[in-house]
Design a protein that fits this description.
Blueprint (H helix, E strand, L loop, with lengths): L1 E6 L5 H10 L3 E4 L1 H9 L5 E2 H5 L14 H8 L5 H10 L6 E5 L3 H7 L3 H6 L4 H11 L5 E3 L5 H9 L5 H31 L11 E5 L11 E4 L3 H5 L1 E4 L4 H14 L6 E7 L2 E8 L2 H11 L1 H4 L3 E8 L1 H7 L6 E7 L1 H7 L6 E4 L12 E6 L2 E6 L21 H6 L1
Length: 398
């Protein structure tokens, strides 16, 4: 058995390779991965020994070779493939472990286009796609978090078709997201972000109970781990509709820096908002805007909910309270309401992801735009048209 390992993220790879060797695998590797495994005294074959061709063009071509892709792609269930592999001297590769050049990290640290171009992986996606296509016989590994899962399946004779199929799906998701990121970057750099195609890629956080209605499926997806890191469930299950209302309310409540802002949203529409000296005062004033619509609504609090505010909130039925945080006493008080849902960020003030774009579904597609947000100088160019100047509070209201 043979395993090909070529990874940019080398965390955990030495142990993974050691365990594969114990299971009887020969390891083939390239470049930096080969050196890392060799330095760790792990038996490893350099890829050019398999390809019978040296790495060339400053590492641009390493694994794009029939001895590599033939080893991955030939079908083990067709005698004609096995015969041809033997005739050509192609040995099977049964496991491929690849993660791709760090394109995202590169564009975050530099604007040097030459460096960016060199961090577009070619051989890696080709191997991933080959191994995924032949998942009937080959295990494809693209995520370091799956190393233990793969080893457990190999050790326990549970290397099933269903397992390999799951890894195949993850592999194609991986290469699709990678290509989408490159295309979006190029369109942003050269076409103002509005290219001929627009790709929106998210990672699943959790399934919602259902979609907008009970007969629809629903799930929450995220960009850049923001929700994984800053959406903590204290009580209840966030629904599809809840997430839309929470997002809308939180964007408004957080738009004014450290101000004690509270926003109430019902069915996608803001029905109350206020900024006062305390969060209790802000909630009280926000509720006055439309107390009827606020019943069963979603409240976003730009700060920490304390006991006094929790007592006030419990005077009516609220479906969701989303806050930077809650004191223990406030959480205990709000939990007295059976149907309330509580979510927090674990911060002192609400922190938004500040996505660079947003989009809305329209029939047959979506409209896409650069994101907008409230800036500190929103009213700096306003002109005095009356005899009295606006107070600080009135400027905030504007």
């Amino acid at each position: 058995m043979r395993a090909l390992i070529s990874v940019s993220d080398k965390s955990g790879v030495e142990n993974f390779a050691k365990e594969l060797v114990k299971l009887g695998y020969e390891i083939i590797s390239t470049g930096g991965t080969y050196k890392a495994l060799e330095n760790a005294d792990i038996p490893v074959i350099e890829a050019n020994e398999v390809t019978k061709f040296p790495e060339c063009f400053e590492g641009r071509v390493k694994t794009l070779n029939p001895y590599i892709h033939g080893g991955i792609l030939h079908r083990r269930d067709k005698q004609s493939h096995l015969d041809q592999a033997k005739e050509l001297g192609v040995e099977g590769i049964d496991l491929v472990c690849v993660n791709l050049y760090p394109f995202k990290a590169t564009i975050e640290k530099t604007d040097d286009f030459e460096e960016i171009i060199e961090n577009i992986d070619i051989g890696g996606p080709a191997m991933v796609r080959s191994a995924a296509k032949n998942h009937d016989s080959v295990i494809i590994v693209t995520d370091v978090v799956d190393y233990d899962l793969v080893l457990n399946n190999l050790k326990n004779d549970t290397n099933t078709q269903e397992f390999r199929r799951d890894m195949m799906i993850k592999a194609y998701e991986h290469t699709a997201a990678y290509d989408a990121m490159i295309a979006n970057y190029m369109n942003k750099r050269f076409n103002g972000g509005m290219g001929a195609k627009q790709f929106i890629v998210g990672e699943k956080v959790f399934d919602t109970r259902y979609g907008e209605n009970p007969h629809q499926k629903g799930a929450l997806y995220e960009f850049d781990k923001h929700l994984s890191n800053k959406f903590i469930t204290l009580k209840g299950e966030a629904s599809f509709n809840n997430m839309g209302d929470i997002s809308g309310a939180a964007k408004i409540a957080s738009a004014f820096g450290d101000d004690n802002a509270v926003c109430i949203v019902k069915h996608g529409n803001p029905c109350g908002f206020a900024i006062k000296d305390t969060l209790l005062e802000s909630y009280t004033e926000a509720l006055k805007c439309d107390p009827i619509s606020a019943f069963g609504g979603v409240v976003a609090v730009n700060g920490i909910v304390d006991l006094d505010l929790a007592v006030k909130m419990n005077e009516i039925f609220l479906e969701v309270v989303f806050a930077a945080d809650f004191t223990a006493e406030a959480e205990e008080e709000l939990n007295k309401k059976k149907r309330i849902k509580l979510f927090k960020q674990g911060t002192s003030k609400l922190e938004m992801a500040n996505d660079e774009f947003n989009f809305k579904i329209v029939d047959g597609g979506f409209v896409y735009q650069d994101a907008d947000k409230v800036e500190e100088d929103e009213v700096k160019n306003s002109e005095l048209k009356s005899k009295r100047e606006a107070t600080t509070q009135e400027v905030k209201d504007m």
